[in-house]
Design a protein that fits this description.
Blueprint: E1 2-8, H1 26-31, E2 36-39, H2 41-44, H3 49-57, E3 64-68, H4 71-76, H5 83-93, E4 100-106, H6 116-128, E5 133-136, H7 145-154, E6 157-158, E7 160-162, E8 173-174, E9 178-183, H8 196-211, E10 215-220, H9 227-239
Parallel strand pairs: 1-2, 1-10, 2-3, 3-4, 4-5, 5-6, 7-9, 9-10
Antiparallel strand pairs: 6-8
Helix pairs in contact: 8-9
């Protein structure tokens, strides 16, 4: 059983700076307070292996990075003819060593479930990079029982996201050994803070999943005005009162 709470990126809002150590890089200071972070920049551009190595060396042993798969694979190639790109991504992110957590595979909303080729791609990804995969589909065709069964076979967890578009996105799916929540802010994505009731409700979900031995990740992505960092602290505080 493990719980990972963090933010999409490790910037430190000035209003919360006093909750972090005063010295060190942003990542070093962030890693002193949180156990996980989601790297989204890898979606847009590659990073050198040495960069990942430097990041891994900046955080405590128990810290974990989730890493977003490049959009060239998910949005441009859409799983087709991607082996060379997977090889490169593997070589780069291997620099994180055992601090590499899940690889996040986010699909464009227009990406219709492609049938058997999806399972072949996930198998290739597991063989090349890691068997620690979370998938965030956003087209309704992915939210069907046969797709869930395929993800269960592949041990790939389906991301739960807020706001949920389409509605089934709100609940985790696929493999039940991991639950990965991406909370973007509601009603205004990337901007709105979650209130105390929402934090408490999510803490209850996290605690219940963790009691069943499920690896639970919560990543706040409502980063525009610093709400993500505040909400992550609030979730940690509320969970401290749960019997887990």
């Amino acid at each position: 059983m493990s719980i990972h709470i963090g933010v999409a990126g490790w910037s430190i809002p000035s209003a919360l700076a006093d909750r972090f150590p005063a010295s060190g890089t942003h990542l070093e200071r962030y890693g002193a307070r949180f156990s996980a972070v989601e790297i989204n920049s890898s979606f847009y551009r590659p990073h050198r292996r040495t960069t990942y190595e430097r990041w891994a060396a900046s955080v405590p042993p128990g810290f974990r990075f989730s890493v977003k798969l490049p959009r060239t694979i998910t949005h441009e190639r859409r799983f087709v003819d991607c082996q060379a790109l997977l090889d490169r991504f593997a070589e780069e992110t291997d620099g994180l060593g055992n601090k590499r957590g899940p690889v996040l595979v986010q699909l464009p909303p227009s990406f219709v479930y492609p049938g058997d080729s999806a399972e072949r791609f996930l198998s290739d990804l597991k063989t090349t990079v890691t068997d620690n995969i979370v998938l965030e589909p956003r087209h309704a065709s992915w939210f069907m029982p046969d797709v869930d069964h395929m993800l269960e076979r592949q041990k790939v967890a389906r991301v739960a996201a807020d706001p949920a578009r389409p509605p089934p996105v709100a609940q985790p799916g696929g493999w039940h050994g991991r639950a990965y929540f991406r909370l973007h802010g509601s009603p205004r994505m990337y901007e709105s803070a979650y209130g105390q009731d929402a934090i408490a409700a999510h803490a209850g979900v996290v605690a219940a999943l963790a009691r069943h031995g499920i690896d639970v990740w919560t990543v706040y992505d409502n980063t525009v005005y610093g709400a993500a960092t505040r909400n992550a602290f609030e979730l940690i505080d509320v969970l401290s009162g749960h019997d887990i």
